[in-house]
Amino acid sequence: MSGDGLSTLRAEYEAIRASLAEARTPAQREPLKRRLMEIYRATDAMLTEAARLKEELRALAEQGRRAAGGAGNPPRPPEPRPAGVRQDRLGASTYMEKGWHLITLGDHAGAVTALQRALELAPEDPQCRALL
Q: Which SS3 state, helix, strand or coil, does residue 80 take?
């Protein structure tokens, strides 16, 4: 498994972090902020694709289990979600964006609070877990 994409994004992040420390004017910071958002979007897309792949792998493993078990074994029903727990991806995305914004501003405590709220709304969201 290759981590080249992630390694590249990490290296770009580190370069931007160093450049932001040296940037003195808004004109110097603006292109760095734009590139930081590009890296965020690329990372977000990678997380989405990784979550999709994870679900496909899970389905393939289940298919393999059924094939190995023969026709006599009924498929296992999906695990029920605990009562009262529901995914609110749209609401969580608002808090994730707020958390990301606070990270970029350097308000890490505020970012943690926002991202924890996002996890309350969407406890299984891998993107939110990664940001937190």
A: coil
